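Reviewers of the previous submission asked for a worked example of the structure-prediction workflow described in the proposal, so we include one complete record here. The input consisted solely of the amino acid sequence. No template or homolog information was supplied to the procedure at any stage.
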Amino acid sequence: MQRPYTAILIVPTGVGAAIGGYAGDAIPVARLLAQVCDRLITHPNVLNGASLYWNIPNALYVEGYGLDKFAAGCWGLRPVRNNKIGLLLDQAIEPDLKLRHLQAADAARATLGLTITDHVITDAPLNVELRTAPSGASWGTIGNPDSLLRGAETLINKTGAEAIAVVARFPDDIDEEAAQNYRQGKGVDPIAGAEAVISHLLVRNFQIPCAHSPAFAPEPPHPDLSPRSAAEELGYTFLPSVLVGLSRAPQFILEKGSIQSQPNDIWAEQVDAIIMPATACGSSALLSLSNKQCQIITVEENKTQIQVPPQALNIKFTQVKSYLEAVGLIVAHKAGISQLTVDS
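From that input alone, the workflow returned the following structure tokens.
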């Protein structure tokens, strides 16, 4: 019997990807790839659609820092049936907005049957600030990272949280031109880079699944809105998709042999393929896997704001025009067919 075919789908955060740079608009790609893989490993930027989500049974929801550690062979992944999710709220969130998020968590318990602990509020405002790099990519800073870490530690030690959903209050004074471009499906997500900073910090320090949901003051509806960003305009919170993703996010195994292995444990050497946008190949995960027996597939149609092609990194890759073509390549690879040719 052949071992399961495992693929990784990455769409880097905050780089204006044409597919996956908006509110869950890469979910159709993940659904498609999951049909031809036995296991699809991807990350919150791909699967988070604010109030919208899709259950993909064979998809593994892995935060970006943890995905990099997995690809490097430092950490393994252990699939779970259910995680106990701790909810960490920024002290800076106003009472009415906090209530909306607590009601979303209550709804997830009652409607979806998720296991969510009592929430914890940080002991100081997190003071998130947004930044934009010269390339156009978004990033950000946290003014009080120690408060974030203390809150997470409380959730883990006092409530038994196995995964953490963070809700930080984000600035309302986002650059209006950037925000309008994003709403029209033309620009970079101005908050995505800062979100990654928050989740990376917690996963690095506590080695458990984590994802972030930003809190904003409600705005009036925008008539000129791209369908790709519309998911973020449906309600008062982006929390539902985060809670769904974390509910079955795999736990991290920090070292081979450190605990008794299980048949479903996954390690980097079991990855058969990784799929990336063709201009965004600087990912730590991709660079690590380029040294292993892993097929690297780059997708031309998924344009980004950065220019890091695989040729510049001197790695072996196969470029395709579209994700549909990537599916065909994976099917051939899975079947053990090296190439298809037509005699002239």
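The chain has two domains: 6-79+253-335, 84-235. We consider this example representative of the routine output the project will generate in years two and three.
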